[in-house]
Design goal:
Helices cover about 30% and strands about 10% of the residues.
């Protein structure tokens, strides 16, 4: 099985996760629900989770063996104070906030 094939197995769950985050936008330093969801997801994949960085930050550490090498990935969790005009099912449930 290729890496792409392995990832494809997770595609429906990852899509649902992304849509949930999109539907529940939180402004900067208020992303408690979002941070909780991200931390829970990382933990479920076996990633060591550290919380509380810059108030709502989440850091995941993935190790393989005893190697000191690491790979850093960064993502923005906060939304913007904008009205969402999209009509898809996972549009923001909060007026005046959206992931744009």
């Amino acid at each position: 099985m290729t890496v792409i094939d392995a990832i494809q197995k997770f595609a429906p769950d990852l899509t649902a996760f992304r849509r949930d985050i999109h539907a529940h936008p939180e402004l900067g330093y208020q992303e408690q629900r979002t941070a909780d969801r991200v931390a829970q997801a990382l933990d479920s994949y076996g990633v060591t989770v550290h919380r509380g960085l810059a108030k709502t930050g989440v850091v995941g550490t993935l190790r393989r063996g005893a190697s000191p090498k690491s790979l850093g990935l960064r993502a923005e969790l906060d939304a913007l104070p904008l009205a969402e005009l999209n009509r898809f099912a996972h549009r923001s449930v909060h007026d005046g906030r959206m992931h744009a």
